[in-house]
Amino acid sequence: MQADQLDALLASAGPARSTTAMRLGEMPGGSAIEVPCTVFRGRDDGPTVWVMAARDGDEVHASLVAMALLRSITPEALAGTLVVMPIGNVPGFGVLSREHPLAPTYLEEQMDDAYFELISARGGSFIDLHSAGVPSETVDWTLYVAGDDAGESLARAYGSPFVYEHRMGAGEGTDPGLLDGALFVRAANAGVSSILIEAGGGLPPSGDTVARAHAGVTNALRALGSLAEEVESRPTPRVLRGFRIVTAGRGGFFEDGAALGDEVSAGQMLARIVDAYGETVEEIRAPVAGVVLTIPVNPAAGTGTWAYEIGW
Question: Which of 30, 84, 180, 196 has the fewest other C-beta atoms within 10 Å?
Answer without folding.
Answer: 30
